[in-house]
Amino acid sequence: MMPPDDELLDSVAALALGILPADEARSLRLRIALDERLLAEYRSLRMAADLVGYSAESSGVDAAICVPLKARVMDAVRAQAPARIPRARPLLVWPAWAAAAAALAFALATMLQNATLHADVKSSHDRAAQLQTRIDAETRVAAAQRGELADLYAPDGKHFSVQGGEIVQRGDRIYIAMRQLPKLPKGKVYQAWTLAQGAKAVAPSVTFTPDRAGSAIVALPVSTARIAAVAVSVEPEGGSKAPTSTPNFIRKLG
Amino acid sequence: MARVRDRDVAAFEAIYDGYNRLVYGIALRMLGEVSAAQDLTQSVFMKVWSSPESFTIGNFGAWLARVARNRALDVLRGRASHLEGEMPNDIALEGTIDEIVFARIDGARVRAAMSALPAEQREPIELGFFGGITHEEIARRTATPLGTIKTRIRTGLRALRSTLETEVPR
Question: pTM of whole model > 0.90?
Answer without folding.
Answer: no
